[in-house]
Amino acid sequence: MNEPIDNAEPTNGLAEILAPRLSVIFCGLNPALSAQRDGHNFSNRSNRFWRVLHLAGFTPRLLRAEEELEMLEYGLGLTSAVSRPTKSASELKKSDYIAAAPVLEDKIRKLAPANLAFLGKAAYAAISLRTDIDWGKQPEAFAGTSIWVLPNPSGLNRAFDLVTLTEHYRELKLAIERDKSVVT
Fold first, then answer.
1. Is 24 helix (H, G, I), strand (E, B) or coil?
2. C-beta of residue 74 within 8 angstroms of C-beta of residue 24
3. If I label 114, which of 25, 58, 131, 139 is the partner at 20 to 30 A Cα–Cα?
C-alpha cells in the first residue's frame, strides 16, 4: 500500500490524496463548495467520479467520498489544479490556472506519478498555453509526468454520459496496465 504524504495544508478543508510514485494522480479543476462543506472530494451525489473510477476498473468496488483515502491502495491519487472552491468551475479564469501552475508542477515533480490526469480541458489548456487539447494522452509531459486529459465527471457536465465518461477513463486504465506489463 502506498503511504500517504503528510498533508499538513489541506486544500481549503479538503485533504489531497497523495503519495509518491502513484500510477495516476487525478487532477480536478478545483474543489466544489459542496466538497468543502462535506470535507470529502467529489462528495456531491451528482458527481460521477467514484462511479466512473469503479466502472473503468480503477477500483474493485464503488468507493464513497468518505472512503477517498482507499484510492492510495490502488495506486491512485487526487489533487486540484486550483485550490479555491467554487460553486462551478466556470467561475475560474485562465489566470487562476496559470497562477496555480507552479505549485502543481512542484507537487508533481516531487511525487513523480506515472501519469497525471486532468479532469477537464480548462486547467491543462491554460497551463500549457494550448487551445487545441484533445481528450486522452497528451504529446508532452508536465513536470516529467505523462499527461492525460479526461472529461470532467461533474454532474454539471452533461456533454458526456456515464458510458462515454467510462470509456475515456478506461483508456487510461488500459494504458497503465500495458505499461506495467512492459516493465514486468
1. strand
2. no
3. 131
Sign of the Cα torsion 55, 61, 65, 70 reads: negative
Kindly list the structural domains of the chain, giving each domain's residue range(s) and its CATH number in brackets, ordered by start. Answer: 24-183 (3.40.470.10)
3-state secondary structure 87-101: CCHHHCCHHHHHHHH
Who's near 148: CB < 8 A, 6+ residues apart?
Answer: 24, 115, 116, 117, 118, 136, 137, 138, 172
The residue type found at 59 is: T
Per-residue pLDDT tens digits for 5-54: 544 344 456 779 999 999 999 999 888 787 888 888 888 888 899 999 99
Q: Using alpha carbons only, give the angle 33, 39, 45 rounded to the nearest 5 degrees.
A: 65
Give me the helices (H) in 25-155, please.
33-38, 49-55, 94-111, 121-128
